[in-house]
Amino acid sequence: MVAALDGRTVATAESLTAGLVCATLGTIPGVSAILRGGVVAYCQDVKVGVLGVERTLLEGGGAVQEEVARAMAAGACRLLGARFAVATTGVAGPGPAEGHPPGTVWLCAVDSAGATSTRRLALPGARDDVRWGATAAALGLLAELAEQIDGAGR
Fold first, then answer.
1. Contact, 109 vs 145, CB < 8 A?
2. Which of 4, 76, 102, 107 could form a disulfide with 11 if both were Cys (CB 3.0 to 4.6 A apart)?
């Protein structure tokens, strides 16, 4: 994962994973050279006030949508001064939320230069399974975006 970023900085914006993505990155030796930090934005007002997600977006469709994941990731890049950011939003369970079943997850990885990659997941299992599955998928999406950018010569 760290090799894919090749010295470029990274930040996280997390809702359903509640800091697991950032904490997982923190277990990698040498990550202190690139990890800028993370924002746990479990509540809507934190998404709006800290990450800059438009309130009307949340009021119109809730937190479990692609556009919210995009806005969270972009906000983390801007707020923490990182080249890359990855965001997680969704429903960990045990029950549904905002009309979505447990395991519904939106991920977004962004590059401050403009590249973006999103992914919708329908993860099986209990609450912890969903959170850890989303964490692994978020880190994979981040690595994929960094590699795509390298391949494009950016």
1. yes
2. 76
